[in-house]
Automatic annotation (TrEMBL):
Belongs to the class-IV pyridoxal-phosphate-dependent aminotransferase family. It holds the Pfam family Aminotran_4. GO terms for biological process: amino acid biosynthetic process; carboxylic acid biosynthetic process. This is 4-amino-4-deoxychorismate lyase. It comes from Solanum lycopersicum. It comes from the Eukaryota. PANTHER family: AMINO-ACID AMINOTRANSFERASE, D-AMINO-ACID TRANSAMINASE, CHLOROPLASTIC.
């Protein structure tokens, strides 16, 4: 019987090989043949199942039917996968260290970067159905955690994600994750996802929404030098998505890449009416020649927590006479480029001077005094601000 089956199989294989020149796909993509072979290893006298120590080989055929070189695809155990992930991470340099991660999928915190993973069928992965936010860690305090958490929950509601925990539980999970990390200066980033369950479009098949959080320590030295920006040719997100901090950051990424391709730091979006909107992950503000702090309205862009805090702190500069006033309104490109100062504002860069926009030099082409004063106020606020913006971490 084994000999008869082997001969029958050989005939099938020969017939299949003879038909290869007429195939429209390479054999590696042809479903009628490979699935029957993929779990078997053949010898002259018997057919036996593959074991974990065995290696798959795959051959591709070029358009003229010629066989291309084979490559090995090992079948790995869970422990082997973890070890390879750990080795892979050790093989490349990064300026960011990942110190701790929480996942509601496994219901706890890990400090092993090889275990900081999410399921492939999580809808945040393959459908972009997720939202996120970030809070800075400064001297063992979480800066504006509650303000960012409020926005986070609002984004989840807009994204129709069923929040799996109450607000206070989420808050305690985030604080605990930072505590475990021992990080005293860095950032905490966290996500809500529709959750794992399947590869369908709708989230109706997801088991439960998931919460992820990770503590990041960036080893890059701070840089407050003036930067160049360009006008983005990538369309701004529609209003419904622009005001929500979702994981759909492809437009943002392409906008940032466009800036880098033009030797600039960031690209500035304009809204549908041609007014100044925002950068790819930061707000923008100006100091007019009349010494007013001018910031675009938040009705069509993301409501920046750091930008709103800057508006509050800027009142000190009004009292000191360094600013005449503060205005939040539509800003034309012409008025923006005529400003004495331009700045980008965000939790990642805090406050940074823009000295050139496209071909236009902003002000005198140097870092502006008001921008520097606002940066100092934010740094001071992060280190000694009121309890409303500083949450202590119990290490």
């Amino acid at each position: 019987m084994p000999i008869f089956f082997t001969q029958k199989f050989v005939k099938l294989a020969k017939d299949t090989m003879a038909s290869l020149p007429t195939l429209t796909k390479p054999i590696s993509e042809t479903s009628f043949f490979l699935p029957k072979l993929i779990n078997l290893e053949f010898s002259r006298s018997k057919i036996r199942p593959l074991t974990r120590s065995n290696v798959f080989k795959n051959s591709n055929f070029s358009s003229d039917g010629q066989c291309c070189p084979t490559f090995d695809v090992p079948l790995l155990s869970c422990s082997e996968v973890i070890e390879r992930m750990r080795t892979s991470r050790e093989g490349y340099k990064t300026k960011q260290l990942y110190l701790a991660m929480y996942s509601s999928v496994f219901g706890g915190i890990t400090t092993d970067t090889a275990a900081m993973v999410i399921p492939m069928d999580d809808h945040m992965v393959h459908r972009g159905h997720g939202v996120f936010d970030t809070a800075a860690i400064m001297d063992g305090y979480l800066y504006e955690l509650d303000q960012h958490l409020d926005r986070f929950l609002g984004s989840a509601t807009m994204a129709k994600i069923q929040i799996p925990f109450d607000r206070e539980s989420i808050r305690q999970i985030l604080i605990r994750t930072v505590s475990v990390s021992k990080c005293r200066k860095g950032s905490l980033r966290y996500w809500f996802s529709a959750g794992p369950g399947d590869f369908q479009l709708s989230s109706s098949g997801c088991h439960q929404a998931t919460l992820y959080a990770i503590v990041i320590k960036d080893q890059s030295p701070p840089d407050h030098n003036g930067i160049k920006v360009v006008t983005s040719s990538i369309p701004i997100k529609p209003l419904q998505f622009a005001v929500m901090k979702s994981v759909n950051y492809l437009p943002n990424a392409l906008s940032k890449m466009e800036a880098e391709e033009n030797d600039a730091y960031a690209a500035i979006w304009l809204d549908g009416d041609g007014f100044v909107a925002e950068g790819p992950n930061m707000n923008v503000a100006f100091v007019t020649k009349e010494k007013d702090l001018l910031m675009p309205c938040f009705d069509k862009i993301l409501s920046g927590c750091t930008a709103k805090r800057v508006l509050v702190l800027a009142e000190n500069l009004v009292k000191e006479g360094k600013l005449r006033g503060i205005r939040v309104e539509n800003v034309s490109v012409e008025d923006a480029k005529r400003a004495d100062e331009m700045m980008l504002i965000g939790s990642g860069i805090l406050v940074r001077s823009v000295v050139q926009w496209d071909e236009e030099i902003i002000g005198n082409g140097r870092e502006g005094p008001v921008t520097q004063a606002l940066l100092n106020l934010i740094l001071e606020d992060m280190k000694s601000g009121p309890p409303t913006v500083r949450v202590p971490v119990p290490y």
